[in-house]
């Protein structure tokens, strides 16, 4: 452990638990404002869980085009024997996770410690404190305790810190599961397969990234037993059912939780900021994290108090929560539709200008530019 004190008895001004999309984006916004300590049990960029598909806008906003792999300007939906192609009103792309994280970390100027976070000391008492309480928050890690005035939970769906401050913060029944592998496969556009022939209550995808593609399946509200669906999907694509490539993936929330747990700021999947139905979480993780980082920066530079930052962050979340609720609701409906109804639903959204309008609204829920 670093153990280097800030001079006021704290190990850092801000401790950020989790150094992936959300944690790194918070750290970037705090550059130069104080001592920031990032904690993760894996090395930065080592723990990819995702297909790494997001809007090009996200890479531009973060100055991370260096990690860009392939742009997609259409979404292609496969339902049984039918295929619908939707021009995307704003382009998506795939990117290289390791490069994305390394470059974002470099922009942050934060200190990184490899350590597993276990929770906070005296969770019950901490839960009653306002952000910026003189005692700060003691974060318990496998390598020993660390204390900071402000703490951000960006540990992903487990929300390890928020859960230790507010038991019940993590509701396991609000998690979906996804797995994928990256294989040699060339394609254009973002491809999704829905329907009972691949997976009921979920979808499969092919996200191209140059010479390879990330190919995976996601099940709504179910976190295990995805391998058989993966095998039949590979076969459907003309690939061997058990390729050599390793699988990665994990769980993802489909219900927005909260952006504060007592005095702890929460961002990304830890706050449940992953959309139901689409399973898209990177854009929201980055957007809410940038907002959180900006507000904490204003606290460190004396422009506002911790309490005012917490209020502003909560307000920012509440204004966008209806979008998350709508996507959760859509997932609960669409996930149960039989194939013919799925096709009718997809066809309804197909004609111009309905799809661009829907996508425009969907983008509005979490645009990185809105965080600044
Ligand atoms: C198979 C799959 C594919 C997906 N594809 C996409 C996609 O293409 N586009 C998209 O937008 N979204 C996608 N998602 C969702 C997306 O991955 C998440 O929404 C996103 O990763 C959330 O970012 P985050 O930083 O909040 O959490 P995470 O990326 O989960 O990062 C959490 C970090 O915290 C660390 N950590 C966790 N617990 C501890 C602990 N106790 N101590 C220390 N460190 C800890 C982890 O090592 C990790 O680095 C996908 C999800 C899955 C499962």
Tell me the number of strands: 16
The hetero compounds bound to this protein are: flavin-adenine dinucleotide
Indicate the CATH topology of the domain at 12-48 and 98-171 and 254-334.
FAD/NAD(P)-binding domain
Radius of gyration, whole Å = 21 Å
Query: What structural class do helix, strand and pairing data support?
Result: alpha/beta
- In the CATH hierarchy, what is the superfamily of the domain at 12-48 and 98-171 and 254-334? FAD/NAD(P)-binding domain
Which CATH C-level class of the domain at 12-48 and 98-171 and 254-334 is it?
Alpha Beta
Provide a count of the helices. 10
Share in helix: 25-40%
- Named at the architecture level, the CATH assignment of the domain at 12-48 and 98-171 and 254-334 is 3-Layer(bba) Sandwich
- The N- to C-terminal Cα distance equals 33 Å
Global outline = globular
For the sheet with most strands, the description reads: 8 strands, mixed
Indicate the proportion of strand residues. 25-35%
Protein traits:
binds flavin-adenine dinucleotide; alpha/beta; FAD/NAD(P)-binding domain; 16 strands; 372 residues; globular; eight-stranded mixed β-sheet
Walkthrough of the structure:
- The protein has 372 residues and is α/β, with parallel strands linked by helices.
- It has a domain at 12-48 and 98-171 and 254-334: 3-Layer(bba) Sandwich (FAD/NAD(P)-binding domain).
- 31% of the residues lie in helices and 30% in strands.
- The chain has helices spanning 21-29, 56-61, 97-108, 123-127, 160-165, 227-236, 282-300, 306-334, 339-348, 354-364, and strands spanning 12-17, 36-40, 53-55, 68-79, 82-95, 111-114, 117-120, 137-141, 144-153, 175-184, 190-195, 199-209, 212-219, 247-253, 260-261, 264-266.
- The two termini are 33 Å apart.
- The mean pLDDT is 94.
- The chain binds flavin-adenine dinucleotide (FAD).
- Residues 17-23, 39-42, 47, 49-54, 116-117, 154-156, 158, 160, 178-180, 216, 249-250, 252, 268-270, 274, 279-283, 285 line the site of flavin-adenine dinucleotide.
- Residues 17-23, 39-42, 47, 49-54, 116-117, 154-156, 158, 160, 178-180, 216, 249-250, 252, 268-270, 274, 279-283, 285 line the site of flavin-adenine dinucleotide (FAD).
């Amino acid at each position: 452990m670093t153990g280097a004190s800030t001079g006021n008895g704290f190990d850092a001004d801000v401790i950020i638990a989790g150094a992936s999309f959300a944690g790194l984006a918070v750290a970037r916004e705090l550059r130069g404002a104080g001592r920031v300590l990032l904690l993760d049990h894996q090395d930065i960029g080592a723990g990819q869980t995702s297909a790494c598909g997001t809007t090009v806008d996200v890479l531009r906003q973060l100055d991370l085009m260096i990690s860009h792999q392939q742009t997609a300007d259409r979404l292609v939906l496969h339902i049984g024997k039918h295929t619908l192609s939707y021009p995307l009103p704003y382009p998506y792309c795939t990117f290289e996770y390791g490069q994305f994280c390394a470059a974002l970390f470099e922009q942050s100027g934060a200190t990184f410690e490899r350590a597993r976070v276990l929770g906070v000391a005296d969770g019950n008492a901490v839960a009653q404190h306002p952000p910026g309480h003189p005692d700060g928050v003691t974060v318990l890690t496998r390598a020993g305790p660390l204390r900071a005035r402000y703490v951000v939970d960006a540990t992903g769906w487990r929300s390890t810190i928020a859960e230790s401050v507010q038991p019940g913060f993590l509701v396991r029944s609000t998690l979906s599961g996804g797995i994928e592998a990256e294989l040699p496969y060339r394609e254009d556009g973002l491809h999704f397969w829905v329907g009972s022939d691949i997976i009921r209550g979920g979808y499969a995808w092919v996200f191209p990234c140059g010479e390879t593609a990330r190919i995976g399946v996601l099940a709504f509200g179910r976190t295990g037993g995805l391998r058989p669906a993966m095998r039949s999907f590979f076969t459907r694509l003309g690939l061997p059912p058990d390729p050599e490539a390793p699988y990665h993936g994990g769980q993802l929330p489909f219900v927005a939780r909260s952006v504060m747990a007592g005095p702890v700021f929460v961002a990304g999947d830890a706050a449940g900021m992953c959309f139901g139905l689409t399973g898209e979480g990177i854009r929201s993780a980055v957007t809410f994290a940038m907002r959180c980082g900006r507000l904490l920066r204003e606290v460190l530079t004396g422009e506002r108090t911790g309490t005012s930052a917490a209020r502003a962050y909560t307000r920012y979340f509440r204004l966008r929560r209806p979008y998350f609720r709508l996507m959760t609701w859509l997932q609960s409906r669409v996930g149960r539709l039989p194939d013919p109804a799925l096709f009718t639903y997809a066809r309804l959204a197909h004609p111009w200008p309905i799809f661009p309008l829907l996508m425009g609204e969907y983008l509005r829920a979490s645009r990185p530019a809105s965080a600044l």
